[in-house]
Structure formats: C-alpha cells, structure tokens
UniProtKB/TrEMBL annotation:
Record's protein name: Ferredoxin-like protein
Gene3D superfamilies cross-referenced by the UniProt entry: 3.30.70.20
Molecular function via GO: iron ion binding; iron-sulfur cluster binding
Residue ranges occupied by any 4Fe-4S ferredoxin-type domain in the UniProt entry: 71-100
Superkingdom to which the source organism belongs: Bacteria
Known role: Could be a 3Fe-4S cluster-containing protein.
Cited PROSITE patterns: 4FE4S_FER_1 (PS00198), 4FE4S_FER_2 (PS51379)
C-alpha cells in the first residue's frame, strides 16, 4: 500500500496495534512508594475548592485525586501510575508533578 504526495509514492504502514485495556495494565504494575516525599501535590487548595466541576476527579486513570467528606481535594500519590495526565489536564495548572526520586515510582513491564 502506498500514498502519493508531490508526485512521489511514499510507503504507508499497514499495521494494527493490539487492543490494550488500561485496567489490565494497572493490575500488572509494581509500585515502589516513597513514603517520605510526595511527587504530586496541589499548589493551592483554594483554587481546587473554587473549581467546578473538578475535572481532576475524572482524568486520572488511577483515581489519585479524590475529595474528602468536606469537599477538600486529597492526593493519593502512592497509587500514581506516572501517566502525567494531571500535569496537562488541570485547567488552572494547579498540580505540581515531578518524577519520583530514584528507585521509587512504578516499574512497568511490557509483554
């Protein structure tokens, strides 16, 4: 199969990626939790309190962000799968996310 551009024929890959279920991948992760230093934190809790509809409760596949019974934002960084979605999805850029210190974090295994 090929694709014509500017009078030249460019090859087109005919590849299908395998179906991947995120829940199946999360179950296979190994966590090395740094109990002394959280690698995710909320910069300003007042911003979270005023935020509506709190998209952070939906965009994190590991449900790291939750609210307590008083509506305050809590961060369970120990469950983080380091996807980085919180860095880009918070409309107020109110999440401080760093890679965990060396030796901590998620150990991924493919296959």
């Amino acid at each position: 199969m090929s694709n014509r551009t500017n009078g030249q024929t460019a090859p087109v890959a005919d590849v299908q990626l395998p179906h991947v279920n995120i829940d199946d991948l999360i179950v296979c992760l190994k966590y090395y939790v740094d109990e002394e230093n959280a690698h995710i934190r909320i910069k300003d809790l007042a911003i979270c309190a005023a935020c509506d509809p709190k998209p952070c409760l939906a965009f994190c596949p590991a449900h790291v962000f939750e609210t307590d019974r008083h509506g305050r934002m809590m961060v369970g960084y120990q469950a983080c799968i380091e996807c980085g979605s919180c860095r880009v999805a918070c409309p107020f850029r109110n999440v401080d996310w760093r890679l965990p210190r060396g030796g901590h974090g998620v150990a991924y295994k493919y296959g």
